[in-house]
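Sequence, structure tokens reproduced for absentees:
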Amino acid sequence: MPSLTPLQIANITDGGYLGIAQTLIYLAPLLQSPQENRHATFLTFFLNAVAEIHQQTQDENHQRSEIRRAAQYLRTVPGFSEGDPAMVSLLSATPLVRDVDHFFDK
């Protein structure tokens, strides 16, 4: 079997795809052994890691706080319908103003 280094595996390591454990199970055999190359490396990108952690830890008060923060930047007041364009804009903008620093304090 051919071996590679470095092995670039993009964001399939995100929980919504394979996750890190399954990625390593499937792709570790393709990485060169330490005897062949002691610098053999996996390069990965956790594109959705913050969103996944946020979903696991969010509470109603935190969610309201985020929505209020996003509303400060919008000029329109959303209606109460899910399909209201202003509501869609507000909910789409919320992740853009999210304070994510505390997710990296662990």
Notes: Strands lie at 7-8, 42-43. The CA atoms of residues 27 and 33 lie 12 Å apart. Residues 60-71 form the longest helix (12 residues). The mean pLDDT is 82.
